[in-house]
Write a structure and sequence with these properties.
Layout lengths: L14 H14 L14 H4 L4
Length: 50
């Protein structure tokens, strides 16, 4: 059985709250995210996990 992963929010109205949470969490661990696309961050800038 395969599972399909999608990044859809179950409650679309929660998008603003989720974006705010993401920015707050990143700030707490020292990752400087900007609004919008952040795919150009290097691993060093984003920090390591694990």
């Amino acid at each position: 059985m395969s599972s399909k992963n999608t990044n859809k929010l179950n409650v679309p109205e929660a998008r603003n709250a989720m974006d705010k949470f993401k920015m707050e969490a990143a700030s707490e661990v020292g990752v400087n995210l900007k609004e919008g696309y952040n795919g150009d961050l290097t691993s060093r800038e984003a920090g390591s996990v694990g």
